[in-house]
Write a structure and sequence with these properties.
This protein is of the alpha/beta class and 213 residues long. The protein is built from nine helices and eight strands. Strands 2-3-1-4-8 form a five-stranded parallel beta sheet, with helices on both faces. It has a three-stranded antiparallel beta sheet with strand order 6-5-7. It binds adenosine monophosphate (AMP).
Amino acid sequence: MRIVLLGAPGSGKGTQAMILTGQKNVPHISTGDMLREAVSSGTRFGRKAKDIMEAGELVSDEIMLGIIAERLSQADAADGFILDGFPRTRQQAIDLDELLDQLGVPLDTAVLMDVDFDILMKRLTGRRTCSKTGKLLNIYFSSEEEIAECLNAGGELIHREDDNEETIGNRLNVYRENTEPVVEFYRKRDRLTMVDADGPIDVVYERLLDAIS
Ligand code: AMP
C-alpha cells in the first residue's frame, strides 16, 4: 500500500494513519512528527524549523524533499507507506511523483479526509496528548472517562505549541493556499479518493478502508 493522506490540520489524518499503520504493517511517515523530532533534538535545523512551525508557516519544499527522499529510501518503506503531511504544496506533489518514479514505486492513491472548517477549529483548539499514554484526546470530544484515564495514570494533557488559536488560523489559511492545490493536482489526474472524515474514529476508519481497498 502506497498512499498519501491529505486533509486540513485537524481532519484526523494522523489518527487514522496511526490505526492503519498498525493494521497494515506499513510505516506511517508524518513529516510533522519528523520535524518535531528535529526540533526537540535542538540541532541548528531544528531551531529554524521551530520558528517556522510556531508561526504556522511551511518549511521549504527543497528541505522537505530531502527529508522525504531519505525516509522513503529506508528499508521499512520498501513495501509501502502512508504519507501524512506530505505533499503539502503543488511543488511537493510534483517532487514526490518524480521521486517515486525514480524508486519505481507508483502511488496507489491520494486520500482526502474531508471535514467542515468549524469542526476543524474545535478539533484543533481542543486537541491534547496524554503525556503518559501518548493517547490523543480532545477536551471537547473525548469522554470524561478517557480524560480521567490519562490523569489517573499520572499523565498531563499536553497542548501542542502550534495548536493555539492564532497559529491554527494561520495553519488553516496556509492549508487553503498551499494544500488545496495539491488536492486539485491529484483530482485532475484521477488519483484522488474522498473520505467523509466527520464522525467517530472507527466509522471514519471503515470509510477509509473502503476507499483504499
Ligand atoms: P503537522 O503535524 O503535519 O500539522 O505539521 C506541523 C508543522 O510542520 C506544519 O504546520 C509545518 O510548519 C511543518 N510541516 C509539516 N509537513 C510539512 C511539509 N510537507 N512541508 C512544509 N512544512 C511542513
